[in-house]
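FAQ
Q: What does a multi-component entry look like?
A: The components come first, one per line:
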Amino acid sequence: MAARRGALIALEGVDRAGKSTQCRRLVEALREAGHRADLLRFPDRTTEIGQLISSYLGREKNLEDHTIHLLFSANRWEHVPMMKEKLHQGITVVVDRYAFSGVAFTSAKENFCLEWCKQPDVGLPKPDLILFLQLSPEAAAERGNFGHERYETSSFQEKVLQSFCCLMEDKTLNWKTVDASKSIEDLHREIKSIAEETMQETLRTPLRGC
Ligand code: T5A
Ligand code: NA
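Then the predicted structure of the entire assembly, as tokens:
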């Protein structure tokens, strides 16, 4: 029998929904339960491409809109060999944002359609599970003010949320929406249980491209 591969689990959601908090908690909990699990975040600001992205987000650098979209995608592609290796070794990979953030944010800009935005990420490892952390703009606002990074305005975030809603209509992907207004602990328990269910199922499904 082939060895069990790891599951690819993506967390997506509006800003301040608690993605980074939950990704960290999930990986810790999976490891405590004896699973092999690693965390990745996109953008990964540590690579050369990631540093360009970070200076764009911090408004130190201006980049043309198509160019930055392709850089976000390239930042995912540069991790694909490592991701595939981990998944084939049986390591579950939890990603803090993935291609769906890429599409949702760029398509919220003027003159970008979803179809164009999706193309650069076609063929990336397909997540076994995408957890969408849903939080109302009002509840998000209570979690502190926006910082100074690009995209951190309520009107833009509203458009991003609409794009995410369109992406969630794709029934070929395993989207699960969770209520991110719950306490960190309650949300963690729910996410861990959904993740473990998915990890059981990956035994029977080969890794595909999305
Ligand atoms: N982007 C990203 C693109 O345009 N294209 C792409 O392809 C990609 C991948 C940076 C920007 O890049 C854009 C999207 C972004 O605009 P980032 O570095 O992931 O992306 O952004 P961050 O600012 O790190 O993340 P968020 O603002 O989205 O926050 P999180 O991770 O959702 O939330 P988290 O966990 O940091 O928590 C936020 C605050 O809320 C509290 C936390 O303690 C923290 O203070 N909190 C809770 N409070 C109450 N109840 C709960 N359940 C809570 N959970 C967390
Ligand atoms: Na985050």
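Q: Is there any commentary attached?
A: Sometimes. For this entry: Residues 31 and 50 are 27 Å apart (CA to CA).
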